[in-house]
Each structure stands twice: as C-alpha cells, then as structure tokens.
What does this fold into?
Amino acid sequence: MPAAAAGAAPATARPLPESERGRPTIKRDATWFAQIYEGTVDRVYRFAWVLVKDPDRAEDVTAETYLKAWNARHTLKNDDRVLSWLMTIAHNCAYSDLRSRRETLDMAALANHADTGPDAVDGLEFAATLEQLRDALLQLTIEQQQVIFLRFFEGSSHDEVAREMNRQPNAIRAIQFRALKRLRRLLDSEATSG
Amino acid sequence: MAESLEATLDQCIDRLVAGQDWRDLVDERDERTHEVHGLMDVAQGLLLLAGHATGLDRRGRDRIRRRITTTQSMIRRILFYRIPHLPPLWLKPEAC
It folds into this structure.
C-alpha cells in the first residue's frame, strides 16, 4: 500500500488501545445492553439513591444514566469495567439533577425509618446524622464515592473493588482512607458549626 | 499497628462489614489508635446508611426499562422524521 494512501486512512481506523488488543470484539447491540441493564440496574439505582436522596429521583437518574450509556456505548473502553463506567455516568446525571432542583433536603423518609426505635428524639438525631453523612458523601470525588459505595453498600472486598475500578488494591486502600478521613473532617466541621 | 494505617483500617472495615468485632485489630498503645476509631465511627455510619438504601423491585426495574425504551424510540422518531410530512432525513442527507 502506498505510504500516501496509508497516511490518508480515515480517523475511525485508529488502532485499538493496548488493553483492548487480543480481546474478542463484543457487539454492542440491544441484546448486549439488555444484559448489562439486568446485571447492573440494582447497583446503579442504589448509587443514585445515595446521591439524590429520593427513590423517585433515583429512578429518574437511573433511567437517564442508561439512556446516556446507550448513546455513548462506543466510548466504553473496557467491558470488565461496565459498572464503574455506569457509576461515572450516574454520578454526572445525579449532580446535574441536584443542581437543577436545589431543593432543601427531605429528611422525612429517613426520619420515618429511624422513628421505629424506642425513643423518637434519638431517632430524629440518628436520621440527622445519617443525613449529614449523605451530604458529606456528595463532597467526595467520584473515585472516592465509587470506592465507598462498592465497599459499604455493595459489600465488595478491596480486591473486587480494585478489579472493578482497574486499580491496584493498595490504591483502593489509599482512596478509601482519604475518603473516610474527608468524611470525618466534614462531619466534625458540621458538628462545630451547627 | 506495625502495618500502615490504611491497611489496618481496611482490615477493620472487612471485619465490620462481616459483622465481626474489629477492635482487637487496633493496638490501644499506638498513638494513631484514636484516628482509626474516629474513621471507624464514620465507617459504621456508612454501613447504617447502606442498611437504609432502598432497593429496586421488579416493578421499578420494569418502569425504568419502559422509560428507556420509550425515550429511545422517541429520539429515533425525532431523528428520522424531523417534520411529519417530509421524508426521513436519512433518505435525504443533504437536507441536514
């Protein structure tokens, strides 16, 4: 092939990245997407719930996440990291939802949950603490949120989180440590200011 | 606590998530013990919060699926039929 012709190859004919070479090509069609949906929707919904604090809004965010994911399915670089990719999209959708609504936080749902204990006042304080914790979670980086979610909400081991996020286990430990430290600082500053 | 603080914390969290006692992993004589206890308080709060996380039932899953498929078909209609009485744009790309 002449060098000029080779140089004039269309932009779409770029070589695959190192991590993708040798992998069987997965057809990203509706069947593939339906399988992804079935396998991940529970976790994506829970992640959205943590961020937006409302079951209905979490459904909105989840639906929007999958719509965006479908439209951007060709940008998924590594099929082993689908959940992490979806969580990044969900994070962005949740933040745009929070920005657009900017409501005062609805504490009723949590208070109702907590009010089943022997002391209603303790229940409300408990709900308020959890609410502060949720607020603090919003101030973490997306990477920190993903690690915290997978570790505490999904019960994944740090090795599983490392695989999902394509990072070394030590890096996951470090992210987790920084995330908890930041949450502690945020809660402490909330306690001193409130 | 000869190991790094991060590793100790990670082991404590593993125990906490498994519903076991984590306090014996922390050396009370170590000056960083106080920090681990403070972070484990946060970890316990996170676990409580996780217990309150609402799951998605079968109807919720179906509702979201319907919304996705409906919106997708609507987008497709908008793309292909910009104006109802004109031919679809993919038949006449120069019209885009």
Q: What stands out?
A: The domain at 27-103 of chain A is CATH 1.10.1740.10 (Rna Polymerase Sigma Factor; Chain: A). The longest helix of chain A spans residues 169-193. The interface with chain B takes residues 37, 41-42, 45-46, 49-50, 55, 58-59, 62-63, 66-67, 70, 110, 113, 129-130, 133-134, 148, 151-153, 155, 157-158, 170, 173-174, 176-177, 180-181, 183-184, 187 of chain A (CB under 8 Å).
